[in-house]
Amino acid sequence: MASSSFIRKMFETGNALKAEHGAGNVFDFSLGNPSAPPPKAFEETLRRLAAEDYPGKYKYMPNAGYPDVREALASWITGEYGVDFPAGRVLMTCGAGGALNAALKTILNPGDRVMVSAPLFMEYRFYAQNHGGDLTVVDSLEGFEFDFGAIEKGITRDTAVFLVNSPNNPSGKVYSMASLERLADILDRKSREFGRRIYLLSDEPYRRIVYDGIKVPSVFQAYPHSLIATSFSKELSIPGERIGWLAVHPQAEDAQALFDGAVLCNRILGYVNAPGLMQKAVASVLDEQVDMTEYQRNRDILCRGLKEIGYDFHAPEGTFYLFPKAPGGDDLKIVDALLQHRVLVVPGRGFGSPGFFRIAFCVDTDTVSRSLSYFKAAFDEVTAS
Q1: Sign of the C-alpha dihedral, residues 208, 209, 213, 215?
Q2: Which of 44, 80, 189, 297 holds its CA 20 to 30 A away from the CA of 331?
Q3: Residues 158/113, Cβ–Cβ less than 8 Å
Q4: Rounded Cα gap, residues 254 and 261, in angstroms
């Protein structure tokens, strides 16, 4: 509890400020809560499914999910990831968090390590510790590129998983296919050196939240010993519905045991199965996604405004986050300065990267535009001191 999420702490601070000053007078960029509405096709499908009456509508299904839903998703994965993917390797889960925990409980032995490159979603540390493991964090290079030297040096015989998040929360970085292939080469060589398979686990809830025509590469094409954990939370704007999936590459070492283990862990972790109505709903709208217009507009306004002020950052290639460097290098100082102007952001140390801070721009555009004068005031105060 003492080391719990900076994100939630700032979110709770924001709620207190809104109660005191009014929601319109607080600029809350703390939580990645999607602001775009779900696609109309999703809501129409949900209404249709809720109205249908058929036997067993609310009963248990196989722990892996409805067979027809898994068939539909496997077909979609085949087209999206460029591999011939069978329904027998996809598990419906309670969001990406449920998928990650099922995967890690399946793979990890006590004392095993999960490696990840900073910046990172810090809940990963808790997820690893949930299942007897721990997290090894390696710093990234300029532009949030992988530091392959540090990665290779940091892998030990206890390393069981490399966890990658692309597009990355909080940086918005999309790792290239060349980077994934180089990472895969390191994992394969180290697997042979230590006599155990190191798996690549890809966390991809922002896969379709991208800009400028960017296409997120397929980890399945880069490395056969890989798993994908993801959700529909961001691409359909339904985070509260807790629906996602875990896919095991059909050519992964011990693929059948991995999948069977994940199904078992999905049950014994207490999830039992993913929500039934949501399984049926998402299966009908696999090609749908939120309208990116507002996110694109917010990103452009924010990047243009912060650049004019003097903030240093890399424009995000995906997600709805911006991760600037803290002026003067102290992320807590700029976060506190912004807080004095009722602007809520999250310090970079909450993502393993002190010296940066995260802005979640999944808010209405008016909030972004009106906040810029306060970003400037905080910048001037910090740099003057």
Answers
A1: negative
A2: 297
A3: yes
A4: 10
84 near 250, Cβ under 8 Å?
Answer: yes
Please write the tens of the pLDDT for every residue from 48-63: 999 999 888 999 999 9
pTM, to two decimals = 0.96
Amino acid at 113: R
* pLDDT tens figures, 83-117: 999 999 999 999 999 999 999 999 999 999 999 99
CB 352 within 8 A of CB 137: yes
Helix (H, G, I), strand (E, B) or coil at 116: strand
- Give the whole-angstrom CA distance, residue 349 versus residue 358: 10
Which sign does the torsion angle of CA 143, 236, 121, 267 carry? negative
Query: What are the strands, taking DSSP E only, across the chain?
Result: 27-28, 90-93, 113-117, 134-138, 159-165, 199-203, 226-231, 244-248, 321-322, 343-344, 346-347, 357-360
Query: 3-class secondary structure for 31-87?
Result: CCCCCCCCCHHHHHHHHHHHHCCCCCCCCCCCCCCCHHHHHHHHHHHHHHHCCCCCH
* Residue 90 near residue 70 (C-beta atoms within 8 A): yes
What domains can you pick out in the chain, each with its CATH number?
6-36+291-384 (3.90.1150.10), 56-283 (3.40.640.10)
**Average pLDDT value for residue range 226-251:** 98
Compute the distance between CA of residue 135 and CA of residue 157 in angstroms, rounded to an integer.
14
What pLDDT, on the 0 to 100 scale, is given for residue 224? 98
Q: Are 46 and 26 in contact (CB under 8 A)?
A: no
Burial classification of residue 171, based on how many CB atoms lie within 10 Å of its CB (0-12 exposed, 13-18 middle, 19 or more buried) = buried
User: Quick one: angle between helices 40-51 and 276-283, nearest 10?
Assistant: 130
Residue 343 CA to residue 119 CA, distance in Å, equals: 22
Q: Ramachandran region of residue 111, left (φ > 0), alpha (ψ -120 to 50) or beta?
A: left
C-alpha separations of 62 from 54, 221, 262, 286 in Å: 18, 29, 13, 21
Query: Which residue pairs, CB below 8 angstroms and at least 24 apart, start in 186-189?
Result: 186/148, 186/151, 186/152, 186/155, 187/155, 187/162, 187/223, 187/225, 188/223, 188/225
Q: What are the φ and ψ backbone dihedral angles of 229, each rounded to 5 degrees?
A: -115, 125
Nearest Cα to 207, choosing from 199, 195, 219? 219
